[in-house]
Design a protein that fits this description.
Elements: H1 14-38, E1 45-49, H2 55-64, E2 69-74, H3 77-89, E3 95-99, E4 111-117, H4 126-134, E5 137-149, E6 154-156, H5 160-175, H6 186-192, E7 197-203, E8 206-207, H7 213-230, H8 236-239, H9 241-255, E9 258-260, E10 263-270
Parallel strand pairs: 1-2, 1-4, 2-3, 4-5
Antiparallel strand pairs: 5-10, 6-9, 7-10, 8-9
Helix pairs in contact: 1-2, 1-7, 4-6, 5-7, 7-9
Length: 272
């Protein structure tokens, strides 16, 4: 299980960290809803797997309140430092971050919950990781993960450039050896980890041409651009990355379209 969290298909850059923060802002109420359904409540001690820039950890910190605590773990030292700075700037005293491979993670006492969002799809052996980390959860505690069905993204009415861009992104994910419909697999992963699934639900935002959505899609394409180009999925001039957001927004505005984001799937179990 060495480097189990380091199968990330996208670029590890400051632009990608910024894109992840935009994505996190989009998902805040929807992700919080799924975590509440899973049983995340005030006072809990929570372990956040693949905490990235800290968005989920800070969201959970709000859900568990001052009597609870959150430990975010991530293998990328740069993004862990970003998370620490952001939590400090937000004045959060109940959240901390650790730069480690989860294979090396040890805790002084069990946690009440293990959580993660948009992390399982990047693991080579997600069920093995969840099985191992579930051992850090107390009996009766919560194990819950959220992941995305990226193929559910669409504009309604459909717009050609958005459809093409989404095809580039989905094909790049597949070319990188990952599954753009991994959200459907979250309950399967929990079962394969030896857990009994207690519930599954979906949530996700949508927006028009004047929302963050065109920029979000364009910046996602930017992060995937090296894979898109390397696998011949499109040419640099075809993508024209620096104008892509404007072209997507213009096309959506002309069609009066709404963009539906990745469908966020949450599944949860109780530790026996």
């Amino acid at each position: 299980m060495d480097n189990v969290t380091d199968g990330y298909v996208l670029n590890r850059t400051s632009a990608e960290t910024a894109r992840l923060q935009v994505q996190a802002d989009m998902f805040v109420p929807h992700s919080a809803h799924l975590f509440r359904l899973a049983g995340i409540t005030p006072g809990m001690r929570v372990l956040d797997l693949g905490s990235g820039a800290g968005d989920v950890s800070m969201l959970i910190a709000d859900l568990v309140g001052p009597t609870g605590s959150v430990l975010g773990v991530d293998i990328d030292p740069g993004v862990v430092e970003v998370a620490r700075e952001r939590a400090a700037a937000a004045g959060l005293t109940n959240v901390s971050f650790l730069n480690t491979d989860v294979a090396d993670l040890r805790l002084d006492e069990p946690v009440d919950a293990l959580v993660g969002r948009l992390i399982l799809m990047h693991l080579d052996e997600p069920a093995a990781v969840v099985r191992t980390l579930s051992g850090l959860v107390r009996p009766g505690g919560v194990v819950t993960f959220q992941d995305g069905n990226i193929t559910r993204c669409r504009t309604v009415p459909s717009t050609p450039l958005m459809t093409k861009t989404l095809d580039w992104i989905n094909d790049a994910i597949r070319a990188g050896g990952r599954n753009p419909e991994f959200g459907d697999q979250v309950p399967v992963v929990l079962r394969d980890a030896g857990l009994t699934v207690a519930g599954v639900a979906t949530a996700g935002p949508a927006g028009a041409a004047d929302s963050v959505m065109p920029d979000y899609v364009a910046e996602s394409a930017r992060s995937f651009l090296p894979v898109i180009l390397a696998h011949g999925l499109a040419t640099e001039s075809e993508v024209d990355i620096d104008t892509l957001a404007d072209r997507l927004a213009r096309e959506m505005k002309e069609a009066g379209s709404t963009f539906w984001s990745p469908e966020l799937v949450g599944a949860w179990a109780r530790k026996s």
